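dumping this here before i forget
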Amino acid sequence: MSAEKGVFVISLDFELHWGGFEKWSLQRNDESSFNYAQYFDNTRTVIPEMLSLFEQYEIHVTWATVGMLFHRNKAELLKNAPVLKPDYQVKELSAYHYIQTTGIGEDEQTDPYHFASDLIKKIVDTPYQELATHTFAHFYCNEAGQTLEQFREDLRAAQRVAATYGKQLKSLVFPRNQFNDHYLKVCFEEGITSVRSNPLDWFWHIESTQQESMWKRLNRGLDAYFPIGKKNTYKAEALKMRDGFPLCIPAGRLLRPYNPKELFLNDFKIARIKSEMTRAAKHGEVYHLWWHPHNFGSYPQESLKGLTEILKHYAYCRSKWNMNALSMDELVSLIQHGN
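structure:
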């Protein structure tokens, strides 16, 4: 396959409750509080529908999955957990602290928010899908207290549990997009050959989960609708492999979910994605779309409708300009070998 063809990449941060356990309570204190249990129940329902769409449109997708979700029950999870765990100064950021203080259920049937073996099997069994990692325990690489060796042991735990599904993890997405060269080297040493890196815009540079600037968050939100950021498509050959490092594949656009309060802006953001995809297809560039499956948890059918429109547009770009859908790992192969 020629690198001159446009490339459509999708990477997903598959987390369920592990993506924000320190701030998202599954217990409702009153009727006005957000129902996260229903939110993640909806997420579990919508993931097979996503997979069906990906198969229908032959979309190659990288599922960066928290390693704890791979397990069928608590006993398996604790057995596979690394001995060396992150020592965050803010203890509440640790998934292990959450398990000890708040607790999780015994298995996927009683606790579908912290276990997802059934869903991972569906991903593995669906054509064109790459099973990747979002670290074992949603590891934060920029938080005070954790160390490189703790991160290494986290990745090793993720590889061990993936092996029970017959998979070796080759691609990674860093939780909250926190990383630097030291962590990239560890990734490569533990078998990771590609990672998703941040968009180039300043408002996607995330130092910490703590006290992030509201101004950055506002600009990230506005960029979904208005062209305030930099050009977010690029030539595949512009991505350079460094010896001893995984390939960093910049994200292009976060697919934000349907929001009934946004009215016409819902259509506007889908139109913007289609326009950027068209540009990539015409000019033989890479367009990298990403989101969390749980982003579809509030209005799943409306969000799926938007996704379907995007995938239909990809089918148009494929027929008109011969655009290709590739996983992150397949993009590495394209750059290294031209196929």
